Amino acid sequence: MTESLAATILGLVEGATEFLPVSSTGHLILVGHLIGFTGAKADSFDVIIQLGAILAVVVLYWKRFWWLLSPKPLHAFSGPRGLWMLFLTSLPAGLLGLATRKAIKTYLFGPTTVAMALAVGALMIFWVESRKKRDRFYTLDEMTPGLALGIGCFQCLALWPGFSRSAATIMGGMLLGAKRGLAAEYSFIAAVPLMFAATLYDFYKSAALFSADDLWILTIGFVVSFLSALVAVKGFIVLVKHMSLRPFAWYRLALAATVFFFWPK
Predict the structure, then answer these.
(1) Which of 18, 144, 164, 221 could form a disulfide with 11 if both were Cys (CB 3.0 to 4.6 A apart)?
(2) Pairwise CA distance, residues 256 & 113, whole Å
(3) Phi/psi at 161 (nearest 5 deg)?
(4) Mean pLDDT of 27-43
(5) Computed over its alpha carbons, how large is the radius of gyration of the chain?
(6) pTM to 2 decimals?
């Protein structure tokens, strides 16, 4: 398989799964092993092409991001207050990620650990969806700093590849009183600062792995990731307003079982 084709496949996987509660990192690791795209460079490539998916969210929610820079009196989630809540959400996983980055890449970037995370996350989704709902927050403008920080603490679970940042933040938001639709919407927006920082940091640390020839491959992954994420985010927002997360949990369990029992040893 050519590197261009591998980049295209991985870009599709990244964009399609980044904001779904199924773990984009886990899927990239599994697909990378299947197509023989592994190693330190591949691990960094998986992180770097996240920028494409991030850009898709910025494009879709451009008004919200603009309001963070140009406060709107009628919108509480704007200006310094909105930026403060995003900072609170990003802080726990940002600090823990910096402290554990090397260990995570060394011990958790493998099919078996990804399958374990997929299964654990699926069971948590079933548990969260089975609880009696006590929604207290319905829109972004009703969010509080406490809710933002609480979601940030749950986001730390996503440092385990295969658990899913989207699943962690959506479940955390629901457990803390956010309506499912709000939890999903905030999950998209809150992903931008943390993923942007993580991507730039990873590229800085692994820049020596890439040559000028690799820029074309990174560009392919970036563009395909952006386009597929545009479609996935729009579709997921529609679905999550009319259905629970249980179908995603069943998919995670099926994928985990496939890896456990059929993955080449």
Answers:
(1) 221
(2) 10
(3) -55, 125
(4) 85
(5) 18
(6) 0.88
**What residue type is 63 in one-letter code?**
K
In Å, how far are 132, 165, 197, 238 from 242, measured between CA atoms?
17, 21, 33, 7
CA-closest candidate to residue 111, choices 210, 44, 197, 25? 25
* DSSP codes, the chain: --HHHHHHHHHHHHHHHTTTTT-HHHHHHHHHHHTT--SHHHHHHHHHTHHHHHHHHHHHTHHHHHHHHS--TT-SSSHHHHHHHHHHHHHHHHHHHHHHHHHHHHHT-SHHHHHHHHHHHHHHHHHHHHSPP---B-SGGG--HHHHHHHHHHHGGGGSTTS-HHHHHHHHHHHTTB-HHHHHHHHHHHHHHHHHHHHHHHHHHHGGG--TTHHHHHHHHHHHHHHHHHHHHHHHHHHHTTS-SHHHHHHHHHHHHHHHHHS--
pLDDT digits (tens, 9 = 90+) for 76-132: 898 999 999 999 999 999 899 888 888 887 888 888 899 999 999 999 999 999 988
- Take residue 151 and report the two structure tokens written for it: 């979601």
Both structure tokens of 206: 């692994």
Structure tokens at 198: 């993580």
Q: Give the residue among 57, 53, 60, 62 at the shortest CA–CA distance from 17.
A: 53
